[in-house]
Design goal:
The protein is mostly helical. It folds into two domains: 2-93; 95-135. Helix content is 87%, strand content 0%.
Length: 135
């Protein structure tokens, strides 16, 4: 494969993909900065968790772009730190929907467990009746 240029072609593709990632990261960061520039004090006071999500999302995008351009322990640490902050902000911003989803999932699991229990109980009764010679 290497003699036919497969390895060289893979390296070219990897470089192109990395370059596209950098361009996308720069564009995403620029969009985030432009979005943050539209916030005023009243908007922040009205919905601080939305602002925190936008701010940390932009910081995470910038740090991931920096990590792609210059992978080193510092940019990795920044990416991990901003990623954790962004994840926390997303959870805080969407806590009501997450709580509702968890509640619905719990109800669904409870319903399925009840169905399984009923099925096992009915099956055990039928089996007991079939095995009982006095029935």
């Amino acid at each position: 494969m290497a003699s036919q240029g497969g390895l060289a072609n893979a390296a070219k593709a990897a470089g192109w993909i990395r370059g596209a990632g950098v361009v996308g990261g720069v564009a995403s960061t620029a969009y985030g900065i432009a979005n943050l520039a539209t916030y005023d004090t009243d908007m922040i006071k009205e919905n601080p968790s939305k602002f925190a999500t936008d701010l940390t999302g932009t910081a995470f995008s910038a740090s991931m772009t920096a990590l792609t351009v210059a992978p080193n322990p510092v940019t990795l640490g920044l990416a991990v730190g901003t990623g954790l902050a962004y994840g926390g902000a997303l959870i805080r911003d969407n806590h009501e929907a997450i709580g509702k989803g968890l509640s619905e999932a719990g109800d669904w699991v409870g319903d399925r467990a009840s169905d399984v229990k009923d099925g096992i109980t009915d099956g055990a009764k039928k089996l007991g009746s079939a095995l009982n010679p006095f029935d």
